[in-house]
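TICKET: design request
STATUS: open
ATTACHED STRUCTURE:
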């Protein structure tokens, strides 16, 4: 009986549960349908974007391609590689990267103390891996260019190229070396081989430098514009804009130059060459207070002898000889520091001595420089020093080498043309002098706060060319 009574009770309970389950199931199904609709409406989760590369990684990529790197990234890269070579002293690649990074930091800071460190690291890389170490050879070539030791740069660059003629990064240091030695045809041939292997911003910037040295200024400007547009890293783009600004200033377009320089500094606040360029352009525009400030900022972080010379001459043009003398003392100090680091600043020192010191000393220094590396820049500086030392006849030979495209001096530089015109005036070649002095002022009427003024005075003193008319012919002439 108990079983009979329990049976109906259990059946009833089960039936009630089934009855209650139906609305619950319906609610669950409805809820899932609504939730599914909501999930459909919600945007799909995108995969997380990869973290941006660290400054050190960006510097590593830049150093590997031979393009400018940001200073914070260089500091991080150097710290990483120093730790790596302490742990693994036989790591030839880390030694080569470390040496190249030291060289780049020295260039960017105008701090020659980095150069011996760079050389030690690069030579250690070669010692660890003496065979087929193209990276270390190319790094030594780049270091030699930074030190203005172009014969060594050519030697290292040609060794690297012999090992890996298809490695495009071995070509740019070799182009710079040939240019510094006045071997412009070799530089152009090397550029042609480079462009067959590679395209892109770094190659365009290198091509622009060659075009500028050959006097193809429009081609150079176009190549730099494309390089700046294609560069991704801010430091690289800023470097190309700085070069574009310098080219615009050389063409006598200070407003255009100033825009390029300012954008370069905005992208890379450590772009001191662009800050000095601002000083140059602002002085050309007569905005001297701003120009002085721009030069001071550049020199505070990158005490380059060339900037000190330019600022000193700007002070001198403003009738401030004491302030100029401070900059000239800084120039001498920086040249001594460069020599201690194995860097060559003889051209800047020679120019300074020719105009503000001892021209005879300038001639001695620049003759030795010419024997070692007879580039266009050295030819111009030596010619001017000889003129200032009272030897205009010999000076003309070097002035022609710097300005005559047939003799290798294809660059259209107002300062070079001014030097040639003044030398010709001293030799009483008045027609040529008038022509070349006027050409200097056409190229860039504000090429120097001191010498542009002297060029205008010389042109005015020479006067207009005489109107001699058409010579009459003899009666017997056919």
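STATUS: resolved
RESOLUTION: sequence designed for all positions
ATTACHED SEQUENCE:
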């Amino acid at each position: 009986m108990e079983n009979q009574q329990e049976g109906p009770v259990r059946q009833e309970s089960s039936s009630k549960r089934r009855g209650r389950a139906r609305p619950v199931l319906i609610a669950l199904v409805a809820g899932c349908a609504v939730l599914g609709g909501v999930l459909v409406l919600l945007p799909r989760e995108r995969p997380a974007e990869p973290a941006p590369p660290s400054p050190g990684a960006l510097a590593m990529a830049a150093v590997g391609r031979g393009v400018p790197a940001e200073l914070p990234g260089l500091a991080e890269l150097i710290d990483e590689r120093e730790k790596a070579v302490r742990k693994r002293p036989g790591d030839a690649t880390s030694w080569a990267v470390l040496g190249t990074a030291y060289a780049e930091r020295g260039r960017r800071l105008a701090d020659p103390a980095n150069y011996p460190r760079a050389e030690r690291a690069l030579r250690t890389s070669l010692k660890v891996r003496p065979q087929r170490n193209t990276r270390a050879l190319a790094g030594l070539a780049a270091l030699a260019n930074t030190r203005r030791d172009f014969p060594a740069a050519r030697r290292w660059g040609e060794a690297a190229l012999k090992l890996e003629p298809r490695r495009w990064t071995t070509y740019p240091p070799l182009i710079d070396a040939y240019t510094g030695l006045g071997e412009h045809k070799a530089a152009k041939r090397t550029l042609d081989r480079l462009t067959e292997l590679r395209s892109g911003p770094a190659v365009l910037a290198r091509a622009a430098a060659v075009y500028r040295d050959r006097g193809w200024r429009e081609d150079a400007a176009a190549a730099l514009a494309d390089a700046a547009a294609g560069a991704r890293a801010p430091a690289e783009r800023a470097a190309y804009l700085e070069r574009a600004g310098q080219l615009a200033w050389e063409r006598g377009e200070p407003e255009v130059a100033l825009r390029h320089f300012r954008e370069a500094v905005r992208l890379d606040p450590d772009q001191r060459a662009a800050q000095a360029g601002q000083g140059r352009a602002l002085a050309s525009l007569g905005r001297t207070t701003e120009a002085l400030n721009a030069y001071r900022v550049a020199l505070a972080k990158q005490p380059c002898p060339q900037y000190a010379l330019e600022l000193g001459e700007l002070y001198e043009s403003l009738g401030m000889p004491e302030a100029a003398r401070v900059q000239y003392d800084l120039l001498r100090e920086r040249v001594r520091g460069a020599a201690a680091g194995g860097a060559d600043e003889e051209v800047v020192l020679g120019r300074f001595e020719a105009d503000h010191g001892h021209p005879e000393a300038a001639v001695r220094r620049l003759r030795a420089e010419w024997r070692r590396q007879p580039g266009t820049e050295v030819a111009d500086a030596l010619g001017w020093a000889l003129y200032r030392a009272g030897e205009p006849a010999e000076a003309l030979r070097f002035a022609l080498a710097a300005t005559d495209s047939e003799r290798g001096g294809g660059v259209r530089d107002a300062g070079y043309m001014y030097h040639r015109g003044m030398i010709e005036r001293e030799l009483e070649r008045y027609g040529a002098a008038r022509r070349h002095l006027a050409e200097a002022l056409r190229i860039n009427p504000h090429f120097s706060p001191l010498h542009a003024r002297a060029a205008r005075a010389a042109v005015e003193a020479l006067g207009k060319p005489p109107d001699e008319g058409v010579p009459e012919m003899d009666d017997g002439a056919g």
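CLOSING REMARK: Confidence is low (pLDDT under 50) at residues 1-43, 470-478. Residues 2-41 form the longest helix (40 residues).
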